[in-house]
């Protein structure tokens, strides 16, 4: 019997039937077969506290008894107000205004609309294109597809439908690059800005870690250089921290490594600890102030039904509280230490002919191979070892929940290594 559920990113003819999950606890989820699988991906990088975290579950229960949902048009409520205040406190200084939506993709759509309208409201209506990067992934909605990598990305099929934006080469200098080593990467940005700044509303990027486009990592020096270029060419800087936000790169936000404030910043995935879909698009005063005016054009015409959902805001507040009270940055540093020891320092692994690179940043590690064929069967292989791995293309990675223990982390890295070193 075939299921009526249409699975994501799936080739329907060849896709193996999905595993049936009945519950979860900590870094594991449980299948109807009785198996417990250790989740190396924390469910597309969002379940940062793992499954069934007692405090997050209790917060949801409590909020459900008070108010599950109310529209944000003309109304407000304590969870939305308190979360916005917390986000302003936690994010780089200057990001003082919070626009809610219900997913990372929509959060990015909001960011792009905001940037374009800002330019129009400040007398530069010809600035309406985006400058993105190769290897970028910003979501699957139409506006987002148009700023994903147009060659290696997964949306080539829709090229004819999409607005034509500009793409700079993906940065190549690694995380620990010195300022002079990012010059070539910045030159790629500068070239496009010199030629096209008059028509560019914003430069957008996943800071430090281009995630779904191949876990490409770059340096804080690149972010600082990009910030300066945006200032020089009067272009807004948008950080898509949907994947990097909430600890993934080792700081609260990737922007913190560079001490850079973007003009607009988007958060989702880890925002609610993964317990509900939600997103926040934050803006600096200058952007927000441009929307204060007398004409009909000054209104920002966006308002997702579920923006500021009380359950989502309440669980996000609890997630942030746990993150702070239980020293998650310390936990992430420990995971980074284990990943370094088990993967980066393993010379046999790094010398393996199938492998082109092993990289690491915060609680993220990736083994890059020549072709995706070299990873065919790795999920079934890992399952036999009690681990849930799901590579993206030719990238075998882990982005574990931050509560993953040392024993669990090494079980994940062992599954990743043994696939090659059998
Ligand atoms: C996942 C992701 C998105 C899209 O978020 P959804 O909630 O899946 O719409 C956007 N940008 C980045 C960097 C992401 O990793």
TrEMBL record:
Pathway(s) per entry: Cofactor biosynthesis; biotin biosynthesis; 7,8-diaminononanoate from 8-amino-7-oxononanoate (SAM route): step 1/1
Intracellular or extracellular location(s): Cytoplasm
InterPro entries (alphabetical): Aminotrans_3 (IPR005814), Aminotrans_3_PPA_site (IPR049704), BioA (IPR005815), PyrdxlP-dep_Trfase (IPR015424), PyrdxlP-dep_Trfase_major (IPR015421), PyrdxlP-dep_Trfase_small (IPR015422)
Positions carrying N6-(pyridoxal phosphate)lysine: 269
UniProt EC number: 2.6.1.62
Annotated site (Participates in the substrate recognition with KAPA and in a stacking interaction with the adenine ring of SAM): 9
Keyword Flavoprotein: no
Task of the protein: Catalyzes the transfer of the alpha-amino group from S-adenosyl-L-methionine (SAM) to 7-keto-8-aminopelargonic acid (KAPA) to form 7,8-diaminopelargonic acid (DAPA). It is the only aminotransferase known to utilize SAM as an amino donor.
Protein name as catalogued: Adenosylmethionine-8-amino-7-oxononanoate aminotransferase
């Amino acid at each position: 019997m075939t299921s009526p559920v249409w699975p994501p990113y799936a080739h329907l003819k060849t896709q193996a039937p999905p595993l049936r999950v009945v519950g979860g606890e900590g870094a594991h989820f449980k299948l109807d077969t009785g198996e417990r699988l250790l989740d190396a991906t924390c469910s597309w990088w969002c379940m940062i506290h793992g499954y069934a975290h007692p405090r997050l579950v209790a917060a949801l229960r409590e909020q459900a008894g008070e108010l599950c949902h109310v529209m944000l048009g003309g109304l407000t409520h304590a969870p939305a107000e308190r979360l916005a205040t917390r986000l302003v406190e936690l994010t780089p200084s200057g990001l003082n205004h919070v626009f809610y939506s219900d997913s990372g993709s929509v959060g990015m759509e909001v960011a792009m609309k905001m940037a374009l309208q800002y330019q129009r409201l400040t007398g530069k209506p010809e600035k309406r294109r985006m400058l993105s990067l190769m290897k970028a992934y910003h979501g699957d909605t139409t506006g987002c597809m148009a700023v994903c990598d147009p060659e290696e990305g997964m949306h080539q099929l829709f090229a004819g439908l999409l607005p034509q934006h500009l793409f700079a080469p993906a940065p190549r200098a690694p995380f620990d690059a010195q300022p002079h080593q990012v010059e070539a990467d910045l030159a790629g940005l500068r070239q496009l800005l010199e030629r096209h700044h008059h028509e560019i509303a914003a430069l957008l990027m996943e800071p430090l870690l281009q995630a779904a486009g191949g876990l490409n990592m770059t340096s804080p020096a690149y972010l600082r250089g990009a910030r300066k270029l945006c200032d020089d060419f009067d272009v807004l800087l948008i950080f898509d921290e949907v994947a990097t936000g909430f600890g993934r790169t080792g700081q609260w936000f990737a922007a913190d490594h560079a001490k850079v404030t973007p003009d607009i910043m988007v958060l989702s995935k880890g925002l609610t600890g993964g317990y509900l879909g939600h997103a926040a698009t934050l803006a600096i005063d200058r952007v927000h102030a441009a929307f204060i005016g007398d004409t009909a054009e000054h209104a920002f015409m966006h308002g997702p039904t579920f923006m500021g959902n009380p359950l989502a805001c309440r669980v996000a507040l609890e997630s942030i509280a746990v993150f702070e009270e239980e020293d998650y940055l310390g936990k992430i540093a420990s995971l980074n230490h284990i990943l370094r020891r088990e993967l980066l320092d393993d010379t046999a692994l790094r010398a393996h002919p199938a492998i082109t690179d092993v990289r690491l940043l915060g609680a993220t590690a990736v083994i890059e191979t020549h072709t995706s064929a070299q990873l065919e069967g790795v999920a079934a292989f890992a399952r036999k070892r009690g681990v849930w791995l799901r590579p993206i293309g030719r990238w075998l990675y882990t982005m574990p929940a931050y509560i993953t223990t040392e024993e669990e982390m090494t079980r994940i890295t062992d599954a990743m290594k043994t696939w090659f070193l059998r």
